Amino acid sequence: GAGVSQTPSNKVTEKGKYVELRCDPISGHTALYWYRQSLGQGPEFLIYFQGTGAADDSGLPNDRFFAVRPEGSVSTLKIQRTERGDSAMYLCASSPGTLRRNEQFFGPGTRLTVL
Amino acid sequence: SQQGEEDPQALSIQEGENATMNCSYKTSINNLQWYRQNSGRGLVHLILIRSNEREKHSGRLRVTLDTSKKSSSLLITASRAADTASYFCATGLIQGAQKLVFGQGTRLTINP
Asked: Of A35, A99, B85, B86, which alpha carbon lies 20 to 30 A from B36's?
């Protein structure tokens, strides 16, 4: 079956602009995660959804970052007033949503560059 | 902040040799997972080991977990050029086990 997909694959924007990054999880996966990865580093957790609700948003760096998952499937990560420091690879993952099976399946990522 | 730390940060070996990567972590865990990443793109899940398990195998992969030392190792036997990638350990914590905390990774290069 289809894996996790993310669009766009690359996004270049100017400082101060607003961007939206989209994630389509694996069908039937109730849990969805967003991570951010800087060059040479491991992914850092941003937010986790169980169904439609954000179960843990402790990784969002500030209030310019927001994510939604209105119907419990597709999720959008929204970044307002982008800054050069927001440049990174943004990774989305999904999982079946149970603790016994929380291996996560990652999408290819969106590389965001803020000029 | 990163929970796990991989060691070494970079490893270069000849094809056919075994590769061993280590991971240490700081807090109690529910499980530990290893992922592979090629060329800075998406991560691929390799293996999950639960906190009550000590060793697990999957094909050419062998993972060990020592919760008393808060460490894990990933062994890749009979390495191939296609194994060249970055390898990350990630811990699922007891509190909030759903979110993973990643280390900084080991960059593995297999020379033909």
From this structure: A99
